[in-house]
Amino acid sequence: MPDPRAPLFGLDAEKLRFLETHQVRAVTIPGRGWRDLGDAVMLYSALETEPFFNRLAAVRWPSRPDVFDARLAEACDLFAALERRPYVWAVPGLSEPEDLIARLAANGFVDQGGGYDMVLVRPPDGATSTRPPGGAVLEHWNRSTDDEIPARADTLAAVIGDSFEVPRARHSNLVREIGLTLGRPDFHAYMLTVDGEPVATGQRYTFDGASYLSSIGTRPGWRGRGFGAHITRLLAADSLADGVDLIYLGVYSENAAAIRLYERLGFSILGGRSADMLQKSK
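User: That's the sequence. What structure does it adopt?
Assistant: Structure tokens below.
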């Protein structure tokens, strides 16, 4: 597992770039793809215009001002050709140049808010316990069949929507997105129910020796009962059982409670707070 005593947990430049690219690859579905540009990775959706699905990540651009400016102009031209606003995920300690955020800000980009990547550096306490707290029931969905997908996608979308305050207008798109993911062999969804009511969920994308944990959330009326912690433990434990030693997740910087929870479960922050840099409308 990553070494918590070493700078950047002992992950070298190649592994760090792999980590950023892995997250982009995890969220691809038909109609939303990724491309390795050599010095950055692009996620592009032909069907969605939201910046989250149309972004550059794993940016490793030259620091010399004139060369940097030329590379940024090329990137902006690419977004323009795709009819998308330029959007860059910049992570201090990982992205290059080191002052990427400041340079983007000087070129009309605005930070939309960011968060932290957290990497598992020790097995979570209690990871061997599979019994959910409070008499809840946990289901593990993987390789869902065509008959199972519609109902499961709707249930997952409802719980995720309530947990993360996703606008109701996005529900049908969220159902579609989850439906396209549920049949994948690398996708695992966990659904926790209380008296038959779906109340909490979490997901993992496990491939190429890494697990990206995502959408760990509990509906407001059922929070404070340890459901999120239990699901996170299982996501990590199941990943370890699958032979994965690089397990990570993302968390918004303002979610201090979640950060404390993940740290208690064995995760540590990697790099600085990311900045979601979106170019201002002209």
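The chain has seven helices and 13 strands.
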